[in-house]
Design a protein that fits this description.
Blueprint lengths: L1 E6 L4 E8 L1 H15 L15 H8 L5 H20 L8 E6 L6 E8 L13 E3 L7 H14 L2 E4 L9 E10 L2 E14 L9 H5 L7 E7 L13 E15 L5 H7 L5 H35 L6 H21 L4 H8 L3 H28 L6 H15 L3 H7 L2 H23 L1 E3 L3 H8 L1
Parallel strand pairs: 5-11
Antiparallel strand pairs: 1-2, 2-4, 3-4, 6-10, 7-8, 7-10, 9-10
Helix pairs in contact: 1-3, 4-7, 6-7, 7-10, 7-13, 8-10, 10-13, 11-12
Length: about 450
Amino acid sequence: MSVQVENLEKNMVKLTITVEAADFEKAVEKAYQKSKGQIVIPGFRKGKAPRKMIEKMYGQGVFFEDAANECLPDAYEAAVKESGLTIVSEPQIDAVQLEPGKDFIFTATAAKKPEVKIEGYKGIEVPKTEIVVTDEDIDAEIESVRKRNARQVSVDRAAENGDTAVIDFEGFVDDVPFDGGKGENYSLKLGSGSFIPGFEEQVVGHKAGEEFDVNVTFPENYQAKELQGADAVFKIVLHDVKAEELPEVDDDFASDVSEYETLDEYKESLKKTIAERKEKTAKTAKEDKAVDILIEKAEMEIPDAMIESQAKQMVNDFANQLQSQGLSISQYLQFTGMTAESMLDTMKPQAQKRIESRLVLEAVADAEGMTASDEEVDAEIKTMADSYGMEVENIKNFLQDADLENMREDIKVRKALDLVVAEAVEVEMPEETAEADAE
């Protein structure tokens, strides 16, 4: 195996990878051995036809595609390693030469990790934050706790925004029901925006026991193409209207929702909790502002393919999160009216910011010669074990060398962020600037 590297624009590279003819022949033979059991040639028992006979009947390259797929992963991995490049996107593979008796040659075009130039990362100015807990903050916290402890009670009145409507529904387009358009005893929070635009507004104003129609138009970018822009009628049966009943704010409320016996004691505890939360928020805001300034100071060119790969990973992570909650990504797209493509596009700005943030902090870590000690890695593994309720040794057994290397890199990045924030200078900012930053 040999590789040639061609640098393209915007941190893209093309690797031309050659698999020697003898090695490719071994892959062809392996492909033949895998496939021969499914091939029938007149005059031979199934699976017993010689390779040359199969190639004569179906063409000499009948096994080339499978052989190429057999060679590709290992050849590409070895080529990347030999090139010394850090590849940060999925490669685009193109066959250049795939002929009998010759070397197998293919190209892999991918993004490489961009170089980052950054200076002046110490002493950057960040807004000064004063931690103040007001009576309004405490009242808002209590109101939030009240809502979390609210009871759902059936009401004998017309449904309003904020109520939960228990409905049966069935959707029709041109008087024909469509897939996914039917549900029974569905609890719909009115005003949540979880259904097609215009649906929930037409439930408002109706009372339990009523049957009525809801007329909507599906969005043009709706996931199901056959419904895009279509006018639909939903037949609705409203079984129940439920409203939130909030508890009274008194000593009994305090003792029910906390370890304190009186409302005054509970409010004092909330004041401390809110202060701690504001301090944590202020710390995060300071870190975010510091990183934003680092990005502005840095010189780097992010390949589009790198952003695409990061956005795909974020979509996959989101899909896994949904799955853990019992919802598939296809259901989510259907409920929101998004497509897979539009969802990926919405992720790209966040993906770019995540990449830029990581790159500038890695650059600071490299400039400072930061490393992650074995003790720090062990501490990280201990934290991981505690969070999963597992033994440290069991966690270590699961971790591969690549996982440990990623862990070391994460530790270095956190060290870099801690350094930048510790060296930052807090300054008073004009009110309008502070408001803009808060937004």
